[in-house]
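User: Show me a protein chain along with its predicted structure.
Assistant: Here is one chain, sequence first, then structure tokens.
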Amino acid sequence: MTELYPEVRLVHIVAVTASSCLFFVRGVAFIAGLRWAMARPIRRISYTIDTVLLTAALMLMTIVQQYPFVHAWLTVKVLLLIVYIALGFVAF
């Protein structure tokens, strides 16, 4: 399974970038009062990207055999993910 690490890592990095960029663009559009920022297709794209991101993260966790609440750095990432989700929920 470790032979998949570079590809899964790349998918994870691309998903992080896509999720962050979409969040930023939707936030700017929402502040500007543009209605498309809350349109159902845009929300579904966001959900899809975040699902890919979470799946890649779980695959990486399994590949490198490092788990939250065992390794401090991964615990911090999980907690920051919760903060990101909460901020996104409050923002939109």
